[in-house]
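Ops channel
N.P.: pipeline sanity check, posting one input/output pair.
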């Protein structure tokens, strides 16, 4: 779905978990697409996966982000910025490895998106990582 430059368009897909609270999976407006923070939840089962394994959680989280990007008429290639939220500093290397594999596989131009990584508490104890994204559309 390509968003109108003036209208705000809510993006939804069954390829990522449905929001559990009062927010959209993604919102597009004016050629931009903002993806809400995604976690390591399997959209088919609505269960968090890979307790204690940040690399597997990062891969699942990025797959959820990608599904919403595609539902919004965008792609990983179109991402300007990823924001990564980790619960533990010692998980950075494993997250970065999964992130690097994902970006290498999904950004054929080699023009890497910007990224910020911060360390925080997350809403569910099993979550080791949450990721959001800002992309262009069209």
């Amino acid at each position: 779905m390509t968003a109108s430059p003036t209208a705000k368009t809510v993006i939804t897909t069954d390829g990522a978990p449905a929001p559990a609270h009062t927010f959209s999976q993604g919102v597009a407006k004016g050629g931009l697409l903002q993806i809400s923070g995604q976690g390591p939840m399997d959209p088919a089962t609505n269960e968090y996966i890979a307790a204690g394994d940040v690399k597997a959680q990062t891969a699942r989280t990025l797959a959820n982000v990608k599904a919403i990007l595609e539902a919004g008429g965008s792609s990983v290639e179109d991402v300007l910025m990823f924001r990564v939220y980790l619960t533990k500093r010692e998980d950075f290397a494993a997250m970065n490895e999964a992130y690097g594999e994902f970006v290498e596989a999904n950004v054929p131009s080699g023009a890497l998106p910007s990224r910020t990584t911060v360390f925080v508490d997350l809403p569910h104890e099993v979550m080791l990582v949450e990721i959001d994204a800002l992309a262009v559309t069209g």
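N.P.: looks fine end to end. The chain has a mean pLDDT of 95.
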